[in-house]
Every structure is written in C-alpha cells, then in structure tokens.
Write a structure and sequence with these properties.
The protein is about 5% helix and about 45% strand. It is mainly beta.
Length: about 150
C-alpha cells in the first residue's frame, strides 16, 4: 500500500488567489507558513519557518477565497503533487499540497466579529474563544440512568 498524505497547521502568508479553470471550476492558491522551535548544539533556542504552497479546487476553493485572509490560521489535509512546465527554454518544478479537507483555525473563518463561518463541510463552526459566553446552558434530566434500561 502506498500513502501520499500531507497534514499541516499554520498561518496564511498571503491572501488566497481565486481563479476559474476553463471548465468553470474554481481554484484557490495560497501559501501556509509553519514553524518549528529547537535548540542548537550551543543550547540556544532557534526557530525555523517552512512555507508550503497549497491549491484547492471546487467548493473548498470557494470557502477559502470567501473566508481566509493573510495571517489567519488553518489546518490543511491533502496530498503532495509536483507539476512541471517550461518557460524560456527552462524546466520549472513546483511541489504543492492539493487540499482534500481543511479546518479553520481559531478565529480563522470569521469575516467580522459577530458571525460564525461554516466549516469545510458547510456546517457552522463553534466559537472556541475563551471570552465568548455560551448561548444556552445544557439542562440535564434529574432522573438517574437505570442500568436495566440499557439495551445491551
């Protein structure tokens, strides 16, 4: 079995570019920065940044173009793909993550502070910020669960 899977969580380095293919399908391209902190041989703390090119098609591209902006966090799942082309007699290569699924990071899907954005599947995202008050308190029944009522 072979596996081609990429999972990254980082921040957008630029606003997504939204285009349409000749077939009419939407395409969004953007870049995500991830960082790693480590200590070198001398014990000094260092930080290294990697930049990942990401491409999304169809409904995913629409959502990315609508809700994501530079600096916002995002979790991306996809596959690695390298494409090549020639320009000016020189062969060029570009390795990208072709997005298959994603999730907005904290406050990454907001257009303004009053609205929640949908997730990649179109359902409203829950606001995970600590300063947000819960809209409704969960009410549990007063009765205890009787083990004989459980069907298994």
């Amino acid at each position: 079995m072979y596996l081609n899977k990429a999972l990254i969580y980082g921040n957008l380095t630029r606003d997504p570019e939204l285009r349409a293919l000749p077939s009419g399908q939407q395409v969004a391209t953007f870049s995500v920065a991830t960082n790693r902190t480590y200590k070198n041989k001398e014990g000094q703390k260092k930080e290294m940044v990697e930049y990942h090119n990401v491409v999304a098609f169809g409904r995913l591209a629409d959502l990315i173009g609508q809700y994501m902006k530079k600096g916002r966090p995002i979790y991306v799942e996809g596959r690695l793909q390298t494409r090549s082309w020639e320009s000016d007699g020189r062969k060029n290569y570009r390795t990208e993550i072709v997005m298959e699924n994603f999730q907005f990071g904290p406050d990454g899907g907001r257009r303004d502070s009053a609205s929640d954005a949908p997730t990649a599947t179109g359902a409203p995202a829950a606001d995970a910020s600590a300063d947000a008050a819960p809209a409704e308190t969960i009410q549990y029944p007063d009765e205890d669960i009787n083990p004989e009522d459980i069907p298994f």
